[in-house]
C-alpha cells in the first residue's frame, strides 16, 4: 500500500517538530528516514501509525489514496517494531506473536488453531523455527527483534513501521540483521518505513532515503543519488566523510587519487600526516604544502600504498576530481 504525506505540520506547544513535510512512499518500497536526533523522524512515523496526530490544517495523509486522518491506529493495518520493543516476558515466543490476534474483537479473532498455525508460519518466515516455546529471556537480542517483527506481521499489516529496530544491538548483529531485513523485504514486498540515524544503514538498506533535519525533509531520493549529488552541505556531511576545500568544494575521500608528488596531473602536494592500513584498505591524512593547512582525508587501497612504499612523513601528490556543478551544494 502506498503512503502519501502532504504538507504535514506538527507542533508540541510552541515547539515545531514537523514543518511542512511532504513525502511519497511507493507501494512495496523500503524507505529510510535518516537524520540526527530530534529532527522529527519518530514523530513522522507515529503520525503515519495514527499514534500521534498532525496539526489541523491543509496537511493530508493518505494510504493508497484514501485519507486516513480519522482512522484510528488499530484500523490502519500498520505493524510496528520499536528499538526497545519489550516482548512480554511471561509469555512464550508463540504467545507473544499470537498476542495481537488473540486480543482482537471476537468478530475478527481467528480460531485458536489458526492463530497457532499462523504463528508457526511467521516463525518460519523470520527463520526462528523451533523456538516457539522459549521465553524472551532465552533469546539473543537479534532473535528478540525478529520475534517483535513476527508479532508486528501477525495482523497482516499493509504497512510496516520500524523505529530504530536495530539500535540496541551490537555492531555485528546489527549488520547481519540489516542484510536479513533487506532480503526479507524483497521476499514479502511489504511497504516499509524505518527510522535510523545511521547513514550506512540507510544507504545499504533502503530504496529511498529521506534525510531529515530540524523538522524538515532536507532531501530524498535513491541512496546512490543522495550520496553522489547532495543538495546541501548538511546532506554532504551527514552521509559520510567528506573534505571541505576552499571555495566550498566538497570532495569525498575516495574521489581523490593518490600519486607521487612529481607525477603528471597532480593538483596539490602534501605531507602524509597519518597512515592507517586495515585489510585491503588504506586511510591517509595529507597536510597540503600550500594553501589552508587543513588535513585532507584520502582513501586508497593497501596495494597502492605498498607499491608506492608510502610512510608517514612522505610527500605525496593528490589529484582532485573535476569540480561538480557548483549549484549542487547550497551552504545554509
Ligand atoms: N510528546 C512530545 N512532547 C513534546 N515534544 C516532543 C514530543 N515528542 C517529540 N517531541 C520533540 O519533537 C522533536 C522531534 O522528536 P522526534 O522523536 O520525532 O525526533 P527523532 O528525529 O526521532 O529523534 P531521535 O533520533 O532522537 O529519536 C524533539 O525535539 C522532541 O523533543
Automatic annotation (TrEMBL):
Keywords: ATP-binding, Nucleotide-binding, Sulfate transport, Translocase, Transport. It comes from Haloferula sargassicola. The lineage of its organism: Bacteria, Pseudomonadati, Verrucomicrobiota, Verrucomicrobiia, Verrucomicrobiales. The keyword ATP-binding applies. Residues 3-239 form the ABC transporter domain. The keyword ATP-binding applies. This is Vitamin B12 import ATP-binding protein BtuD. Pfam families: ABC_tran. InterPro entries: AAA+_ATPase, ABC_SmlMolc_Importer, ABC_transporter-like_ATP-bd, ABC_transporter-like_CS, P-loop_NTPase, Sulph_transpt1. GO terms for molecular function: ATP binding. It comes from the Bacteria. PROSITE patterns: ABC_TRANSPORTER_1, ABC_TRANSPORTER_2.
